[in-house]
Amino acid sequence: MDDSARHANNTMKLRFCNPAFASLVILAISDMEPEGFKPRIGEVWRSPEDQLEKFKAGLTHVRWGFHCATTPDGKPDSLAVDMIDEEHPLDMALRFSLCLLWASTRRGLSTGLLFGLPTTHKNTLLVRAAAKDWDYKTKRIGWDGGHVEPLSLTVNQARAGTRFA
Question: What is the pLDDT of residue 165?
Answer without folding.
Answer: 55
